[in-house]
Design a protein that fits this description.
Shape: elongated
Structural class: alpha+beta
Number of strands: 11
Distance between the termini: 63 Å
Low-confidence stretches: 1-14
Largest sheet: 5 strands, mixed
Strand content: 25-35%
Strand order of the largest sheet: 9-1-2-11-10
Number of domains: 2
Order of helices and strands: HHHHHEEEEEEHEEEHEEH
Amino acid sequence: MSGITAHNLIHTEARDIDDCWNRIGIYGDKTCPVLPEHIHCRNCSVYSAAATRLLDRYSFEQEHIEHYSPQEHERKVATRSLMIFRLGGEWLGLTTRCLDEVAPLQPIHSLPHQRSRALLGVANVRGALVPCLSLVDLLGLDPALTAPTSLRVMPRMLILAAPGGPVVLPVDEVDGIHNIEEHVLNTVSLSGEQASAKYTRGVLQWKTRSLRWLDEEQLLGAITRSLT
């Protein structure tokens, strides 16, 4: 039984009650013979009985709705938010809990005597210089296979909340944040060449694409090692 139906039944119940307090009582013409005795209708047993009847009816309908309606925990589907982006022809997903923001790609300033191959340099993020790393190098991807596929797509940079502070990861394209059902993520696995893929939880089908779901803890660990 829906909430609208319950509301209609309660309205019907109220309509069937003799609301004498509105006709001859304190809210009417005050001709009720027992009004002088009770002073106010709320002190009268007729008024109290009517109120009790309505409350009982409401309580009954609420219990009926709760009993027959799907429970809240049954209606909800557990999901996890992933930022989905592209490097060349490969689509990847990263849990948003480690993501600070997505911003247009800024100029990257190289540093002398860089100790890490993955460290591209620094980028200006709201006036602060933030380390910029190559996700291609971190993941061990083939640079020849990760060149931008379209000049019409604007590159972006992911700003991650790494343990030592924010870091920038340039990417070719950002699709956006999407909620993926937990039961789908729980079934992903690695096989064949995928089993050797770095920092990867698994590969799943997303829309018409093959999506590589990155392990954010392993990735953040690799980022920390690249900066020390």
